[in-house]
Amino acid sequence: MPLNSFAALPASRPLALFSCLLVLKMGAMAFATANARRKEKLVINPEDVGVNPGSRADAQDGPETARVKRAHHNDAENIPGFLGLAMVFTLVGGSATAGWAYFATYFVARTLHSFFYLGHVQPWRTAINRFAEAMTL
Rounded CA gap, 60 and 46, in Å? Predict the structure, then answer.
């Protein structure tokens, strides 16, 4: 399918936008993993101690690094499958309105999941309650 034909599909724009946003979100989670390691002053490889002043080497990740990695791995397990289904939806001629709605909802849900996971916010009612409190400030 030529690129101009793909661009003519109704849901191609929302697919392009939210695909990019989801990939950037996964990159942000990789950065968050590195940042958690930096804050915990813990590296996995002994040779990395020399380039990370004040750190120590340990074969195990610290608790916060492990939490961020689990959130990142959750993205890595779920986002590629969604992107595949979103591509199929677009290729079969799904509507632009539905594409904007479905893809945006998924992106927001994945983003909220990461914030809740990293913020130790569980169960969902607690997350919703904290969100409502933040909205009233």
Answer: 12
Preceding peptide of 123 cis, ω within 30° = yes
User: 44: which DSSP letter?
Assistant: S
pTM for this entry: 0.81
Tokens found for residue 42: 């813990």
Q: Which amino acid appears at position 45 of this protein?
A: N
Q: Are 61 and 37 in contact (CB under 8 A)?
A: yes
CA dist 9 and 95 (Å) reads: 8
Share of the chain above pLDDT 70, in %: 88
> What span, in angstroms and rounded, lies between the C-alpha atoms of 40 and 51?
15
Q: How many CB atoms lie within 10 A of CB 100?
A: 17
**8-state DSSP, 49:** G
